[in-house]
Write a structure and sequence with these properties.
It comes from Hemibagrus guttatus. This protein is of the alpha/beta class. The protein has helices at 17-28, 35-44, 48-57, 65-77, 93-102, 115-123, 163-186, 198-212; strands spanning 6-10, 31-34, 84-87, 107-112, 125-128, 133-136, 190-194. The protein is 46% helix and 14% strand. The strands form 2 sheets. The chain has a 5-stranded parallel beta sheet with strand order 2-3-1-4-7, with helices on both faces. Bound molecules: guanosine-5'-triphosphate and 2'-deoxyadenosine-5'-diphosphate. Guanosine-5'-triphosphate binds at residues 11, 13-19, 36, 121, 125, 134, 136, 138-140, 197-199.
């Protein structure tokens, strides 16, 4: 059994975690598990965790750690034969400790993007709620404005993507994320990237992962799309 690869990507709202995670999944054949998307799936499916999580997300709050860790770890138990990249989890120190007790991580990527850049990006972010597909009128616009390329269904903007909501989200993110970043720095597996453009960060992340991901992942898993 080849060694599997386990990674986490951290970053504030709008930093490009989803955008970069999709490129990693396509380039290296890892499974991308986004906590936000997984929660939305559970909410749509009206699972017990989804119904509970909805009550917190509607208030713009984080889902409690014990709900989040139970949900994410049970999903990860179904993925033990895959290499994966987690996006949006862990988000707190308590979540990181539970994850670290269950899995040994190889790499933690942390995106450090300026506030003004985040505001500008989220102002132009449009989302297809059902699929989680993400667009940006300045970066990756849909073929038809306001319409999802695949389903033809309407795109929406998140209420809390507005600039005035972002500052509070960002302050909360920084308070909660700092101990998580410090934990992985102390473990010697943290890699920090700072820039205003994903396309300038991507080559560095891609070359880092090329050196870290076992080459014997097998052709089926490691699909090069360059
Ligand atoms: N202009 C510009 N927009 C970008 C860039 N990278 C990503 N975006 C867009 O910026 C927005 C935020 O990117 P996401 O990948 O959704 O960021 P995220 O970290 O997953 O955000 P959350 O899900 O809120 O945590 C999206 O609309 C992206 O399409 C970039 O380099 N330049
Ligand atoms: N690891 C986690 N712990 C607690 N709540 C989480 C979580 N991941 C996601 N959530 C909740 C709070 C988020 O505002 C909401 C949507 O998550 P998201 O799609 O990653 O958006 P964002 O992080 O930009 O709010 O789900």
């Amino acid at each position: 059994m080849s060694k599997l690869f386990r990674a986490v990507i951290l970053g504030p709202p709008g930093s490009g975690k989803g955008t970069i995670s999709e490129r990693v999944a396509n380039s290296f054949g890892l499974k991308h598990l986004s906590s936000g998307d997984f929660l939305r799936e559970n909410i749509a499916a009206k699972t017990e965790a989804g119904v509970l999580a909805k009550t917190y997300i509607e208030k713009g709050a984080l889902v409690p750690d014990h709900v989040m860790t139970r949900l994410m770890l049970s999903r990860l138990e179904e993925m033990t034969r895959h290499s994966w990249l987690l996006d949006g989890f862990p988000r707190t120190l308590a979540q990181a400790k539970v994850l670290n007790s269950a899995f040994e991580l190889d790499v933690v990527i942390s995106l450090n993007i300026p506030l003004e850049t985040l505001k500008e990006r989220l102002r132009h972010r449009w989302i297809h709620p059902a699929s989680g597909r993400v667009y940006n009128m300045c970066f990756n616009p849909p073929r038809v404005q306001g319409v999802d390329d695949i389903s033809g269904e309407p795109l929406i903007q998140h209420e809390d993507d507005r600039p005035e909501a972002l500052v509070a989200r960002l302050r909360h993110y920084k308070d909660v994320a700092k101990p998580v970043i410090d934990l992985y720095r102390a473990k010697g597996i943290l890699h920090m990237f700072s820039d205003t453009e994903t396309d300038r960060i991507w080559p560095y992340i891609s070359s880092l992962l090329s050196t870290k991901i076992p080459t014997d992942l097998g052709d089926a898993q490691r699909v090069r799309t360059h």
